[in-house]
Design a protein that fits this description.
Elements lengths: L13 E5 L3 E6 L2 E6 L6 E2 L7 E6 L5 E6 L6 E6 L2 E6 L7 E6 L5 E6 L10 E6 L6 E2 L7 E4 L5 E5 L20 E4 L5 E3 L7 E7 L2 E6 L6 E6 L5 E3 L8 E7 L2 E6 L2 E6 L4 E4 L22 E6 L5 E6 L2 E6 L6 E2 L7 E8 L3 E8 L2 E8 L2 E9 L3
């Protein structure tokens, strides 16, 4: 029983959003909610479909998110107290939640439903009480955040490339534009050849993520002075998402949730421990034939070697048993095909080091290590 009172910190917490009293985030494919300091986390959704982009309403009573409950990602809303999510948008294309209007009556989302190509989206709003979506005037828009008086919107025109391509410096680096919704005049936030994304309008400043200095960090553009300054200085892992509510920002970095106070200009990392029943993590048998990446034949032709689901297996040509040579389900091992007569080499990604191993028979004959470079 004492083990329950000393749970380890849980990582891989994603896409946090914040209200005056609570935080909501993704963990193990579902929405979780906790106190603002990270205590008392509990699961909010249980449907098997994917969820993404949870965002609290301005009053903190509702959470809008994109969910795949009926075959595609659509806009859903759920009470902070729980219950069944309510669907607000209906279209075959994916609808991605991006925020709320400042009055909390409409949800902002991105969709390609009216686009001439699936390669870009537009922004729409849909009423919290239900109704038809209303398009915003931009021809291309991916993410957006309203000014406090709803007269302007800061937005990006297309999806950022940094999710899968770090330090991208090609032709798709994303700038942030500020559009006046009455005169249609626009201003570009000072942009370098880097990805600027996740704009969040807080008071007289627009906060956003940028990798202009290498690692993706939090920056601020002051509307009046037009100055851009960096406000977080993470040097290990990129900041992966950003949302705002009131005078606070919530972001994901190194698998943890961080809260940034815009008044004090300070960031606090939350230590959250989750005791969850996760059926996928229990020991079980899994068919591996659909997950084979590399294979080879022994010099004698008596056995074949396969890389599947992060382990290395040998399989007899005719008679014999299948042997799992590595037996490390928590580590990814890759067959490098550099085989000798009775051994072969492979790469193993264990903790923070890359191992080069030579397997001989059923045991590791030699191992060398080198640090993993990010």
């Amino acid at each position: 029983m004492n083990q329950l009172t000393h749970l380890p910190e849980t990582l891989l917490l994603k896409q946090p959003t914040i209200s005056a009293e609570e935080i909501c985030f993704l963990y193990a494919g579902d929405l979780w909610i906790a106190a603002r300091d990270g205590s008392h986390p509990h699961q909010l959704t249980a449907e098997k479909g994917s969820k993404s982009s949870p965002i609290f309403s301005p009053d903190g009573q509702w959470i809008a998110f994109s969910g795949n409950y009926d075959g595609n990602l659509s806009v859903y809303v759920i009470s902070r107290m729980g219950g069944s999510p309510h669907r607000l948008a209906y279209h075959p294309y994916d609808d991605l939640v991006r925020g709320w209007t400042p009055d909390g009556k409409h949800i902002l989302f991105a969709s390609a439903r009216d686009s001439t190509s699936m390669r870009y989206r537009k922004l729409f709003t849909v009423p919290l009480e239900g109704g038809l979506p209303t398009p915003l005037p931009m021809d291309m828009a991916e993410r957006g955040s309203y000014s406090p008086d709803s007269t302007q919107i800061a937005y990006t025109a297309y999806f950022e490339a940094f999710w899968s391509w770090k330090r991208y410096r090609g032709g798709m680096t994303v700038p942030i534009w500020v559009l006046d919704l009455q005169s249609y005049d626009h201003v570009e936030i000072p942009h370098e050849n880097a990805s600027d994304t996740f704009p969040c309008w807080v008071g007289e400043s627009i906060y956003f993520l940028s990798d202009r200095n290498g690692v993706m960090n939090l920056f601020r553009w002051q509307v009046n002075s037009k100055n851009v300054d960096q406000v977080t200085f993470h040097t290990d892992f990129d900041v992966r998402s950003l949302t705002a509510n009131g005078d606070s920002l919530a972001y994901e970095q190194a698998g943890r949730i961080h809260i940034f106070n815009t008044n004090k200009q300070t960031s606090t990392s939350l230590c959250i421990s989750i005791a969850a029943d996760l059926p996928e993590t229990r020991r079980h048998y899994q068919k591996a034939h659909k997950a084979i990446h590399n294979c080879g034949i022994s010099p004698t032709g008596a056995r074949a070697v396969f890389e599947a689901r992060g382990d290395i297996f040998t399989v007899p040509a005719k008679k014999g048993d299948i042997r799992n040579l590595t037996k490390t389900p928590g580590v990814m091992e890759r067959d490098k095909r550099a085989r000798r007569k009775k051994s072969f080499h492979l790469l193993s990604c264990s903790t923070k080091r890359l191992s080069f191993m030579r397997l001989r028979g059923h045991r590791i004959a030699k191992r060398s290590r080198s640090p993993i470079k990010r």
